[in-house]
C-alpha cells in the first residue's frame, strides 16, 4: 500500500515523519521501530532516527510505503 505524505519544508526527520504519517503514536515508539531495523528509506534499512527525509524519498514501515512530496 502507498500513502502520500506532504511537507511544507525542505525536509522532515524520520521519527517526525512516522508520527505525522500515523505509523506511530509517540517518538519513543518511532525510536524503537527505527532501532529495531523495521524502517526502510528508499529500500534500505535505516537506523538513524534523525535522518533527513526529503521530497522524493519513500519510507516503508509495516508494509506501507509513505511517499514524501511538497505540499502545494
UniProtKB/TrEMBL annotation:
InterPro entries: S4_RNA-bd_sf (IPR036986). One of its GO terms (molecular function) is RNA binding. This is RNA-binding S4 domain-containing protein. SUPFAM superfamilies: Alpha-L RNA-binding motif. CDD domains: S4. The lineage of its organism: unclassified sequences, metagenomes, ecological metagenomes.
